[in-house]
Amino acid sequence: MRRMPGAKAGISGDLHRALADHKAGRLQRAGQGYQAILRRVPKHPDARYLAGVLASQTGAFNEAIEHFRICLGVRDDHVEARLGLANALQGSGRTAEAVPCYEAVLEKHPEQLTALNNLAVAHLALKNPEAAARTCMRAISVAPDYVPARNNLGVASLGIHDYPAAEATFRRALCLKPDDDAAMKGLGDALLAGLAPRESARVFAWALTGCPGNERRLYALGMAKRDAGDREGALAAWQETRRLHPDHDRAHAQIALLHLASGDVEEANRAVFDQVRA
Fold this sequence. Notes:
With 278 residues, this protein is mainly alpha-helical. The protein has 16 helices and no strands. Helix content is 79%, strand content 0%.
């Protein structure tokens, strides 16, 4: 059946309105707009791509994967759709499938930072820190000030037990962005792993000033204090972890172990009881 004159312009206007809703955060209306277009033109590449973006935003990764794949079936050169497909695959836990999608994007756009960084994250998830480190170095060569790649390089360095490199990488990230949460946490982890618990404790204490009550930082501060020989400091950190997060099993366990090590069986039993009660 021949399309009525002006139909293409009508779809363009509808897509523009749906996209405006999307950008304004009116996600339900945007989704309805995209679906209305797809009922008329099921393989409309732009509507498919934007519907995929919306589905990814709302955590509907399987739906997003379908949209992106249909879009790519119409326009194989749609780089944003291929990157969206890779991200959706990774979001759905299908990380091994995401890797070749990121690599396909990078074949045509070798300096695409999001693809490089997310590929590094995928390699880390697949327990391949060496590949992650190489990918991060590619990203840093493109953009030396790109902090996410610095942080992922630090995590990769921890994964291959190169603690001095991890420390240096996280310190560089903090020079670029002094309040970066991941870099502060990573530096503390690197120092702790590299057997510098006193300095690690100072880093975690410093990190807590910007985010008091942070569960991971409090617990890590306790570990660093313990390894530095500061029993009371470790106990205080873990007790605060337990107070703010009563179901934190590891904090309960560390408190019990600390009491046992000092011969205080009664306090150790109390910590175990508190853990069971929580």
